[in-house]
Write a structure and sequence with these properties.
globular
């Protein structure tokens, strides 16, 4: 589903104009702060109705203005039909349209223009907080699974209400919230576990191919674990079975006293941990900075492969200065191992050897002060 064009009004520093994007690969070349990342952000924004840089739409509006919009034309791979997404923010409200029809929920954009974004913040997936690693798996599932989006929303809503009950000591409501929390939470846990199992079939080989280090895998440590009559020592790979609703409810109720003291829910998918191991031993704490960076790059590539395996569709890849810190050999390997894509966008600094990666049909734009000039 490649982009044909993108049009902007007051979108950050980008000029109010239309850029022709019809090419298999598109490169944006420019110094820092000129608008390269803003162009990638606009494509992501048109695809998902949200930014990867901020949760506040007002921050996207050009300084001194009150409203902004972005319009993108793209082609549906299966039918060859051309579609349009239009997103406008008026300073208070956001309006999303697809082919002229108003969209009430951002999840309706799922599978419209599936984008996989590579950027510097991805390093958090290797070394950041547990929340960031959970976010990565949740994002991978949310790219195609509307049911996962729904169950995640329900879980967060129940969790918020339950935490309020704990804080306000409203004991009589907890039993009802406990059941809802567990029902939705176990569905999240099941989908995460299945996704990580599939990811490991992709990730380990990718990481070995680019880094030369084998035996690295993603490890899921769910907060809710299955209990047995004979409790075996838990391995680093965690329990393999999903617990029953009754088992989880018993565990939650046994922790109520501690939860009243802490005024928060102490177990559930919001407490799940995801780590990396090599041959059964924790890997990231002893890995070099370069090895950690390659984990992040391999995860993004695995995300794209995972999406294609599940949906049969190829994503659009958005790569934002992600190879700056890699040596030439690693850059070449990353480039060679890129997954099948419908379209590829890359940003480069002027001194980078982007000519090594371009193809005959690649479009190259020089970006300066939010304007673009195509290299002919």
């Amino acid at each position: 589903m490649p982009f044909y064009s993108a049009s902007f009004v007051n979108f950050r520093n980008l000029c109010d104009s239309t850029i022709n994007l019809l090419a298999k690969e598109v490169y944006f070349i420019g110094e820092n702060g000129q608008g390269k990342s803003n162009l990638l952000e606009s494509l992501y924004y048109a695809s998902y109705g949200s930014s990867f840089r901020t949760r506040t739409d007002s921050e996207i509006v050009r300084k001194g203005e009150k409203a902004m919009s972005v319009r993108c034309m793209f082609k549906e791979e299966e039918s060859g039909t051309t579609h349009t997404t239009f997103i406008a923010y008026d300073g208070q409200n956001k309006k999303i349209e697809k082919d002229g029809k108003f969209i009430h929920d951002r999840k309706e954009l799922i599978n419209t223009i599936p984008c996989v974004l590579y950027n510097h913040d991805d390093l958090d997936f290797a070394v950041g907080s547990p929340e960031r690693r959970r976010f990565f798996i949740d994002q991978s599932l949310s790219m195609y699974d509307e049911m996962y989006i729904d169950v995640s929303r329900r879980y967060k809503k129940v969790l918020k209400s339950r935490n309020l009950c704990l804080k306000e000591k409203k004991f009589n409501l907890l039993d009802s919230y406990d059941i809802q929390l567990v029902q939705n939470g176990l569905e999240i846990q099941k989908k995460r576990k299945n996704a990580i199992f599939t990811f490991n079939q992709i990730f380990g080989k990718l990481y070995e191919d680019v880094s030369g280090i084998g035996g690295v895998s993603i490890v899921y440590h769910p907060s809710w674990k299955k209990t047995t009559d004979v409790q075996a020592e838990e391995s680093i790979y965690g329990d393999r079975n999903i617990p029953s609703i009754d088992e989880v409810l018993d565990g939650i109720r046994s922790r109520r006293e501690a939860e009243f003291v802490m005024s928060t829910t102490l177990t559930g998918p919001h407490r799940d941990r995801i780590t990396f191991a090599k041959d059964g031993e924790t890997f990231v704490p002893t890995a070099s900075t370069g090895q950690r960076r390659l984990i992040a790059l391999s995860l993004r590539t695995a995300q794209a492969v995972f999406y294609t395996q599940v949906t049969g569709k190829k994503p659009v890849l958005l790569m934002d200065d992600v190879m700056l810190e890699l040596d030439p050999d690693k850059r070449q390997k990353i480039t060679a191992l890129l997954p099948a894509y419908d379209q590829l966008f890359c940003t480069f600094l002027p001194g980078e050897p982007y000519e090594r990666y371009r193809h005959e049909t690649t479009r190259v734009f020089q970006i300066k002060n939010g304007t673009w000039t195509e290299n002919k």
